[in-house]
Amino acid sequence: MNDLLLNIKGLKTYFNLTRGVLRAVDGVDLKVGAGEIVGLVGESGCGKSVLARSVLRLLQHPGYIAAGEIIYEGTDLSKLPDEKMREHRGKKIAMVFQDPLGYLNPVMKVGSQIEEALRIHRPNEDPGKIIPLLLESVGFPRSARIWDRYPHELSGGMLQRVIIALAISCDPRLLIADEPTTALDVTIQAQVLRLLKRLCKEREMAMLLITHNLGIVADTCDRIYVMYCGRIVETADVFSLFEKPYHPYTRGLLEATLSIDEFRENLTTIEGTVPDPINLPPGCRFAPRCSAARLVCTQADPPCLTIDALKEHVAYCWIGTAEYEKSAAPLTTAI
Amino acid sequence: MPYLSLEGVAHMSEANGTIMKAENVVKLFPVKKSSLLAALTRKPPDYVHAVDGVSLDVQVGDTIAIVGESGSGKTTLARVMLNLIEPTSGKVIWRGKDVSTLDKNELFQFRKDVQIIFQNPGGALNPRKSIFRILSEPLKLHFNIKSGSELVDRASEALLAVGLNPAIHLDRHPHEFSGGQRQRICIARALSLGAKIIFADEPVSSLDVSIQAQILILMKKLKEEFGLTYIFVTHDLALTRSFASRVYVMYLGEIVESGPVEDIFMEPLHPYTKLLLASTPVPNPKRARSRETIIPVGEIPSPINPPPGCRFHTRCALAKAICKTAKPVVKTVGNRSFACHLVN
Amino acid sequence: MEMQTSRQVLHKKMEMGFSVRLHKFFVSAVDFWRRYKKTKTAVFGLVIILIFAFIAINASWLAPYDPYLITRERFAPPSAKHWLGTDDMGRDILSRIIYGSRVSLSIGFIIAALSMTIGIVIGAVSGYFGGKVDTLLQRLVEMVQMLPSLVLIIVVLLLLGGGIDRIVIIMGLLGWTGTARVVRAEFLSHREREYVEAGKALGFSKFHIIFSEILPAVIPTVLVIMAMNISGAILMEAGLSFLGLGDLSVITWGQMLQNAQRWLSQAWWISFFPGLAIFLTVLSFNLIGDGINDAINPYLKER
């Protein structure tokens, strides 16, 4: 990996609810190198969006960062005072969300909204010159005069591109994209993903792409983290992860994912459902749904196994350890 | 399972062949304008061309996929075929009868026979009713059952068939279930009436990957068990590949290509089908980086006043002069059909 | 064998339909109360109304005197003998307020029930069917709303004479427009939902969809308007009586006020206590309405 841009160490983000403490992110290590596209994959409720929001400290009450460090270019964002944090948002780290319409003011022209962002972060430059350039870089020809339009006049794909223009307006070094294409049609999704990839390359910008779609990560990312119930279960370079998945959850996910390339006579599935995030099972959180689980899996947190150091392939799993070999079958297999 | 299989047997005797058919279905929605302006300009109203001359054929036991992006009219087509809205012109034939001319008894039979499950299973279940009421009300209506114990039996049986536990689940409310379980309840409701044709409008796209597979496996099992016919309305091509036997690709209210799934996925003919396939991400990094890329041009045009000629020409990289003026005729080769000037 | 017993248990469970339903209703009522009681003012309103309702029901043995009894003790100020004093004909004001609560409260409830029924039916039909039916019914709503109701009521009462039954019917027939609008708006949003579409695909009749599928979801909103409507009706009746258009044969708080206006400067208690009763009742119903609203939309309050 080239120089490290973002280094998250042991991050814990909790929500104090009346029912109990919801451990949305529970001890996550994650690294993003400069210019790298990193994918964070997981099913709904696994904490991937909360993780993204924790980085920018955009958590809503009653969420808070309980422990851990978020080191961005040498500074720990989790301990930064609020005013300093505001400088980071948008200027150094930008974010793109799933629903573009919700993040634009419906009664303001697109141009004025970008201008506002520029005025805060780049006050000495002429917005009249930058805005057309920005919009051109996300694929709007100058003749379309997009800056003169209101959000409701644009389609979903165009809006997402406007949001991306807004995000890159201050030349951030890291872009966090939370399900940026989930609401879009496939052909438009392909356009937006291609645009994001091109921008990362051109601007030497790193991207943390959060999605539930394994196809998108395979297509876009260099490195992948797989998240389950608030924890990372496996991480590797994209090729290594898709070719040699180690963790049973990753394998299950890959097997359950359908592809346009092959006809699957027999679908496979991961049995059971995701556990209640307030009452998480002890030990490995995937153990209750794992067909390979043994007693040790339900008793202690899984160790960090290095599968392939060269490809940075790491899995958090008991399988293959001496303890696992010695351990008996689990007491209950109830799901 | 006495009741469910009984309903099944009644239909088993039916001969193979076409069970449902759409013939040249057109559905236009007038665009609302301010009445004053309309009165002043005296302009004829604009129409959303949701479905524009679509014919399709459903064989007994088939799984059909109607594939398209938003605005393609796939959901409107399904609602027309379900007799929920009337077509502007054209007709829907069910078991040899035009559905717009069904008498009261036939319409009841149609409602039992043809069911729908929705994308958002939570929304399809009335949040204020228990699962027992949700399942028993249609049964009371269609089978005129008075006895409470028969209702309980029938409802339990349907729940068992979809892998839920009636002893635990029957008196709960929809909000106490997960998304996957709610979809199971919707399927159980369709089954309990002895449905033969099930329209599935994006049945798994709101669910997580692992849960998607569970529902699809269940649907496959039920299809074999009860001889069901599925019509998938979806944008998910990966699902279509593994699940459907025949696929219809829709674009702006028209079918641009149709045929057996294998043929279409191995060798797409229409440029739009090619674009769709090339745009769908594949969960295989090597293949994703090596396959042909087609750059889609522009945005999907509005279905109000769709482009003249071939509707896809505004986004087609291969478009020629003729595509902008003349509507392509539908060509049929073997069991495949397509509508494109450039492919023969 | 085991299957058989579990089936029997299940049957028993589902067949106790009524008690199960009662239990569910109880559970949801407890849950509603838990949220309702968070609004302290709403609890205050409910207590006041319950007290008035108790008084109205038990008027005959709560009232210390006969409310019609004319005595020589005219204009007696509040004292131990007459807690709230007496009026110009020496009648005990406390007893009159107690008896008046019967008419005032029941008028409020009957008018509200009548106008709600009309409003719900018209709103539901208008919202569910839409199109021409909707346009037609909305024009009707606008026409009724445009009628100057006070003037209309005065004219009718002058022509037909002021009987309490006529007041109730006229106000019931005029007061439904607000309800109709709100119910229509709710139906417009619900009829597009998937469960309604699913109901159609299952072959449910329009009647079933409107009254069994959608209406229960609209009821909480209707309750809020109902509370406001009751207070509006009580106020309206008081206003009419005050103008001398009330029914002279029954005691209502408005009637008492009308009678008191001549003695305003000499004996404040004759007008003050009926006025206070009206004020408290109307305020309480409005507070209850707010409370229900907060209880059914808990998120609005927390934000």
- Helix percent of chain A reads 25-40%
Radius of gyration of chain A: 21 Å
**What percentage of amino acids of chain C are in beta strands?**
under 5%
Order of helices and strands of chain A: EEEHEEHEHHHEHEHEEHHEEH
Structural class of chain C: mainly alpha
Number of helical elements of chain A: 10
- Low-confidence segments of chain A: none
CATH C-level class of chain C: Mainly Alpha
Question: What portion of residues of chain C is helical?
Answer: over 70%
Q: Which architecture of chain C per CATH?
A: Orthogonal Bundle
Q: What is the tally of beta strands of chain A?
A: 12
CATH topology of chain C, anyone? MetI-like fold
Short note summarizing the structure:
By secondary structure, chain A is an alpha/beta fold. Chain A is 29% helix and 24% strand. Chain A has helices at 48-55, 82-88, 110-121, 127-137, 156-168, 186-203, 214-220, 238-243, 248-256, 322-326, and strands at residues 4-17, 20-33, 37-41, 63-72, 75-76, 93-96, 174-178, 206-211, 223-228, 231-237, 304-308, 313-316.
Task: Walk me through this protein's architecture.
The complex is a heterotrimer of chains A (335), B (344) and C (303). Chain A has 335 residues and is an alpha/beta fold. Chain A has helices at residues 48-55, 82-88, 110-121, 127-137, 156-168, 186-203, 214-220, 238-243, 248-256, 322-326, and strands spanning 4-17, 20-33, 37-41, 63-72, 75-76, 93-96, 174-178, 206-211, 223-228, 231-237, 304-308, 313-316. Chain A has a domain at 235-335. Chain A has 10 helices and 12 strands. The two termini of chain A are 40 Å apart. With 344 residues, chain B is an alpha/beta fold. In chain B, a hairpin with a 2-residue loop joins strand 4 (89-94) and strand 5. The mean pLDDT of chain B is 88. Chain C has one domain (52-67, 91-302): MetI-like (MetI-like fold, Orthogonal Bundle). Helices cover 77% and strands 0% of the residues of chain C. Chain C has 14 helices and no strands. The longest helix of chain C has 37 residues, at 93-129. The relative contact order of chain C is 0.14. Chains in contact: A-B, B-C. The A-B interface holds A 43-44, 155, 157-158, 185-191, 193-194, 212-216, 218-219, 238-239, 242, 252-254, 256-264, 267-271, 273-274 and B 69-70, 178, 180, 208-214, 216-217, 220, 235-242, 261-262, 265, 275-289, 293, 295-296, 299-300, 315.
